[in-house]
Amino acid sequence: MIHIDLNCDLGESFGNYKINDEQIMPHITSANIACGFHAGDPFVIYETVKLAKQYNLSIGAHPSFPDLLGFGRREMNFSEEEIYKLVLYQIRAHYSVCKVNRVEIRHLKPHGALYNMATTNLKLALAITKAMKDFDSSLILYGLANSKLIEAAIEMNIPFSS
Q1: How many CA atoms lie within 13 A of 46 on its CB side?
Q2: Fewer CB within 10 A of the terminal residue: the chain, N end or C end?
Q3: pTM reported for the whole predicted model
Q4: Pairing of strands 30-34, 58-62
């Protein structure tokens, strides 16, 4: 049986910059919700999770480099240990919002430059997948088919979707 997931990045409003995420929610099945480093803030994350629950969407964390000014699209140099900590921190923040709204995080999809760099850099991809596995080994990694990110998921024995 084939399952098609209509996935979208959401929760990317920040401060005075507003996006109406609710308009797209009836048309998708899963949402990657920004964790505050490239977009989103505590208020936006909370409201987006609440809306995603209302629309019965599968909810995922959407971690990134700490790059609000560049919307997470600028490459940044961090050690594998630092990437691990950045990703784990964002998952935990996202988890707390999901927990109080009584929903689960089901997947993780890195954002922007973090995602793009992890498609070709195995060490970076392994740091991301290690953070996922250490937090919750049942989280599904969303990644580019045949990339280092998927290779890392296989190596770390975590579920993935490409």
Answers
A1: 4
A2: N
A3: 0.95
A4: parallel
